[in-house]
Design a protein that fits this description.
Number of strands: 10
Strand content: 35-45%
Helix content: 10-25%
Shape: elongated
Distance between the termini: 32 Å
CATH topology: Porin
Mean pLDDT: 88
Number of domains: 1
Radius of gyration: 26 Å
Structural class: alpha+beta
Length: 279
């Protein structure tokens, strides 16, 4: 073999190793998450964080390279709020409360600020931004005389039977996170995601007080009681047509979670020659 052939073989080897090094950054990750959830809307206009609920889920991520990723996740969250804790006079007299579980499915693109390479001692962490879409199920409930009632079917703002708001909705999902290696296979991700929803009924509150007598006739005594919980016997707040919520702003919820991710990576030998590679 002559010198020219040896040089060509050497260049071809370098090209193959470089190409394989790029593909080695591709691959799937999966793992569980645990965290906290909170809600922002008509029953939490001050963005209070005093009533966090538990959250958890499972995620699957595909790494296109060391900068771009696509992640799918399924999440469970519990949210709640209570006017009794508000410092706003109107909200305190309105005296509404709710709790709900949320089950969402989310797809999001992620951009790593820094090159992130599994198993590298130099590229082992990065902050990241993400954005995507979520679809979710929710079911606002409230307690009355020691029992929890589903609010959607009660038409608390005068909705006719069969015309209540849907139990499913969607949201824009966006936020920030940081990921770092524990070792080649395992990494920790800390992520804060905001769901800007397409509904104003996470809390069952959006528009105005209905005619309570009509509501009592159409949906029953419990519906009337949970629609109007204002303090005082003759509160002017609850008169028919008076403001109950703000229909101009949709509700939001946020999830802060920690994920433990397992990387189903490819063979590590292509990383030979990569600065900071672990052997």
């Amino acid at each position: 073999m002559n010198i020219l052939s040896i040089k060509k073989l050497h260049l071809l080897s370098l090209f193959l190793f470089s190409s394989l090094g790029l593909f080695a950054q591709q691959g799937w990750e999966a793992g569980p998450s645990l965290g906290l959830a909170t809600y922002f809307g008509d029953l939490n206009t001050s963005f209070s964080l005093r009533n966090p609920g538990i959250a958890g889920g499972i995620s699957i991520r595909y790494n296109f390279n060391n900068r771009l990723c696509l992640k799918f996740s399924g999440n469970y969250a519990e949210i709640s709020a209570d006017d009794a804790f508000s410092k706003n006079t109107f909200e305190k007299e309105r005296n509404l409360s709710f709790q709900s579980i949320i089950v969402d499915a989310t797809a999001q693109f992620e951009f790593n600020f820094l090159p992130y390479t599994h198993g590298s001692s130099a590229e082992f962490f990065t902050p990241y931004l993400f954005g995507g879409l979520s679809t979710f199920y929710y079911n606002p409930q409230a307690e009355y005389q020691g029992q929890l009632y589903d609010l959607r079917e009660l038409g608390t703002e005068g909705q006719f039977k069969g015309e209540e708001y849907l139990a499913f909705s969607g949201a824009y999902n966006y936020g920030i996170g940081i990921k770092f290696d524990i070792n080649y296979q395992w990494s920790l991700n800390v992520e804060l995601g905001i769901r800007s929803t397409f509904t104003d009924y996470l809390d069952d509150v959006s528009t105005v007080f209905p005619d309570n007598d009509d509501l009592r006739r159409s949906h029953g005594e419990v519906a009337a009681a949970l629609s109007d919980r204002t303090l005082g016997d003759d509160s002017p707040l609850s008169r028919t047509g008076r403001q109950r919520g703000n229909a101009g702003n949709n509700d939001n919820y946020a999830i802060l979670n920690v994920s433990l991710m397992y990387y189903f990576g490819s063979i590590r030998c292509p990383e030979i020659g990569r600065p900071g590679a672990k052997f």
